[in-house]
Amino acid sequence: MSSTAAAGVAxxxxxxxxxxxxxxxxxxxEAKKVILKDKxxxxxxxxxxxxxxxxxxxxxxxxxxxxxxxxxxxxxxxQSTDHLDIRRLRLPTDDDHELHGSGRGSTxxxxxxxxxxxxxxxxxxEAKKVILKDKxxxxxxxxxxxxxxxxxxxxxxxxxxxxxxxxxxxVG
Length: 172
Fold this sequence. Notes:
By secondary structure, the protein is an alpha/beta fold. It contains 4 helices and 8 strands, in the order αββαβββααβββ. It has a 3-stranded mixed β-sheet, with helices on one face. The chain starts with a helix and ends with a strand. Residues 1-6 and 79-103 have low confidence and may be disordered.
């Protein structure tokens, strides 16, 4: 195999780079910068690992699959839906821990855990296990950081926002 093919450059495509193995482990924003530098016309699509995708080939599409928890997962509470904004998810404060008597996330009055700050940096699968242990009826939704979300109230929904590149991005 030639050195250009090993580096993700397809000679049959005029030497244009087609994959970026060096991006695994970086944040989505860092990965996007590198891809756009190498391929300015790239249509970058960010998806959680395991998302269903079409099998059609698009020469400008680059999919980035992500899997590491980037923000504290929160269950939607009735009182929090008015101000829910994925860009400003509130981290638990010391007051939360004093009020709820827990050093590991916040809880509602009924004792059900509603946030998991200890999961930031873990894989999605590890985070799901912990959330389901604390909240067995959780409807867990995995989304890339920055994804638009609905503001409706669902008492069992927990959103996990992910942002670390888990697989080699490639054209297609």
